[in-house]
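Chapter summary example: a protein plus flavin-adenine dinucleotide.
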Amino acid sequence: MIKVWKVEVAVVGGGAAGMAAAAAAAREGASVLLLERNTCLGGVLDQCIHPGFGLHRYKEELTGPEFAFRLHTELEKARVEVAFSHTVINVNPQKPEILAVGPNGLVRVQAKAVVWACGAWERPLGHLLIPGTRPAGIFTAGLAQRLVNIHGLLPGRRVLILGSGDIGLIMARRFHLEGAEVVGVAEIKPFPGGLLRNVRQCLEDYGIPLFLRTTVSEIHGRDRLTGVTLVEVDEQGKTIPGTERFIKVDTLVLSVGLIPEIRLLEGFLSCDHVQRGPRVNSFWQTEHPWLFVVGNALVVFDLVDTVAAVGEEAGRFAARFACGEMQGEPCVPLKRGQNVAALVPQAFIPGEPARLFLRVIRPFPKARVKISPVYSKVHLGLRPAEMVEIRLSSEATAELQRCSEATVEVHPQ
Amino acid sequence: MRAVVIGAGVVGALIARELCRYDLTVLLFERELEVGFGVTKANSAIVHAGFHDEPGTLRARFCVKGNAFYPKLCEELGVPFRRTGAYVLALHAQEVPELERLLAQGEKNGVPGLEIQRTEEILAREPKVNPKIVAGLWAPTVGVTEPWALAQAAVENALLNGLELHLAEKVQTIEVKNGCVKGIKTDVGFYAAEIVVNAAGLFADQVARMAGLDVPEIRPRRGQYILLEGETNIHSVLFPCPTPKSKGILVVPSVDGNLLLGPTAEDVDDKADTTTTQEGLQQVREGAKRLVPDLDFSRAIKSFAGLRPETAAADFWVGPTKIRGFYQAGAMRSPGLTAAPAIARFLVHEVIATEWHLSPRNWNPRRVPPPRVADLSPEEWDELIRQDPRFGRIVCFCNLVTEGEVVEAIRRGARTIDGIKLRTRAGFGRCQGGFCTDKLLLILARELGKGAEDIKLKSERSPIVIGPVRP
Ligand SMILES: Cc1cc2nc3c(=O)[nH]c(=O)nc-3n(C[C@H](O)[C@H](O)[C@H](O)COP(=O)(O)OP(=O)(O)OC[C@H]3O[C@@H](n4cnc5c(N)ncnc54)[C@H](O)[C@@H]3O)c2cc1C
Ligand SMILES: Cc1cc2nc3c(=O)[nH]c(=O)nc-3n(C[C@H](O)[C@H](O)[C@H](O)COP(=O)(O)OP(=O)(O)OC[C@H]3O[C@@H](n4cnc5c(N)ncnc54)[C@H](O)[C@@H]3O)c2cc1C
């Protein structure tokens, strides 16, 4: 017989988002179970041994593990029960019931609300369909980071990083500090994908070149990587013939995007195919009112402080839902308009305050962000790497109720 | 008496297994680190019906027979096999005569169940197919399998029946005296043998020349593929009308629920040139889209290429040679995978056993497949974890593979990251090892008692890491 555990709120995933959600739900008075597939909590924070976490939440610059430790302390205070080494393998589409596997067998968790906080996975090389060979020596940045920071193993000696997302930038510095030669970071776009502070602190400070409008067009080496061909691209992202150059490297690190981990939900949840995450309302609640999604499993956030704050909100709502104080609320859809690459939530609840996060498609030195007729404000220095947070008051969302839907737009000034 | 088989692809593996039925010492040599890492590793994995091949060829003969052997063989060896059926689709009225030609050819070859169907009938079964099709040839006996798994399972079963397996050992010469085989020499040593079977795939010409035979050259014809992940709603193998060079770009629902698109057909010079190219991958996209217009290439998880062993005569080499004791089972172009079980039986029972008056011995045809938690009911899985908690530790999240399965794969012979991948499907899913490569590396190092830097991706010179960060 498979064990059955009963609980009010089940939180899946013990990264920053899940820990914050679980602690908040417990503080709200709900009984909470946090399921984490690893043997420790923290998620991706554990491998981020660099500083740069917590400036907003704790007003201090912490490393990833330090930030995780703070959240862990909050969890313990709130008396959240944690099931370590438990991987959730199935979610019942009809009701808040999940199936997890652990070292003592399978467990069916019957809850009243579920918070999904499973983080994101990294786009692999295969996604890019880069021609050439398939040798050893190609890693996603997160994998390379785990090998170096957690296992103490060095993937190679001469490294090219493809993609200038934050993980790529941070790994460029890490490889450099560990004695490998980083020949550069190649980015297909005309601007870096990561935070400016990371471009400065991880590349410029160490003299690591950033090749913009450049990508890898071929992989070489039969057994272990021997090199890659770099090529420049034009405005449309098309490769420019004649600009190919071979560079000798034994390691290629890919930082080409994170995708929300929602495989188990895909079958019964309507997802946003551009963002590849689920749709939620401003309570972080999906179309199945018992199911909440937070953190990188919803959309890829850039700051863990935001992840924790959103996780907390969702945890509170989940607890209220589990205690019957809240139901599925009528929502008004919120759409991505001009120049908006990512947006959460994708619906708001009229008369309730809402926090929106959006990402622009390219840098705008000055642009007006508009949600007619309640929000219109000029923002300076908008960059795709940095999410914009917008708060709508309860009056504003109440007024939007008269529209059947609202659109968030960005107009360059 | 001693028999040597050269090459542990699907052909050599099945031949070695059949040889173990007789009172013989059987040795199998493979130069790669693992079984099934040659042509068998990268192909369309289709168990063909046999209508593509001209009557009178060895291909036609062994393909139809081999197909019939598949269900029982895969059941005995615990290897996945699914009879999906297949359509050859005509996209224009001009192609309909080609379907009729294939139908007639298939019937002549003895392929059962062939029929030409109309558009509505096809779309009812395969709603995602290009609605512009005008007709299709339906072949119900076509199936899909896992070629490397079949080779590995055959070797495992043969080991149970006394096989001696030599991996990472390359055959370099064949001793022949007075027109009779005396043995072989490898990079490790000399092995006496009265019987030597050449199942060296792409390299069967080199091996045949080692025995002094004058054989035509085997030339590689590359086929590139794109693998798309998951849910596809395509049930049968889909072929376009064939060209003289190949069967065209296909759409294949794989046994593990992905969609395989390809292959191209390009003659290349180098027998190791499994590179993919921009043009090749583009050709695969376009070819596949002709059959199924709305394929989602954002679901691509891998591109790769395989090499067909081609000869001018375009047929298999199967049978005895003028050297007594030296047998050929080479130049296995498509449908070599399908034909392999029939070739193994024919060569071993009808040729070798008859010629040498071999006597049968006790033989166990079965192999107990390793546990695969993804295929178990929750109750069965729960029970398995109670017996061994390692089956409760998930290593690959995409395909639900546990530490228990990885350890079992190593026990059964996996030595490399790719070896584990092919045996367990860990790292075969959409994140392509992003989450599990480090775990597999550490488990391999632990189980084999090696340092992490000694663990290889697939070949001797393909280490994953170079060593500790601060030695
Ligand atoms: C290299 C790197 C550098 C960064 N640098 C900074 C920085 O300097 N400053 C900053 O503020 N932010 C930074 N971030 C961002 C921040 O760390 C992340 O946004 C945040 O940690 C994400 O938290 P999460 O909980 O959503 O996801 P994760 O941390 O990925 O947590 C998900 C958890 O869910 C678990 N899980 C997944 N599936 C299951 C399942 N089926 N069953 C059970 N458990 C499951 C996982 O094991 C994991 O513990 C960085 C991120 C990275 C990767
Ligand atoms: C693109 C493509 C698509 C195909 N599609 C299909 C299909 O859908 N259906 C089908 O039926 N068939 C198909 N085939 C054909 C099928 O894959 C092959 O016929 C089959 O895998 C051949 O197996 P093999 O054992 O002969 O060769 P291999 O798997 O290559 O085995 C030969 C082995 O011999 C070893 N070897 C070579 N020389 C030496 C030496 N000197 N010493 C020791 N070992 C040596 C090699 O390392 C190799 O492992 C396809 C082939 C290709 C390339």
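Key point: Chain B touches chain A through 58 residues (CB under 8 Å).
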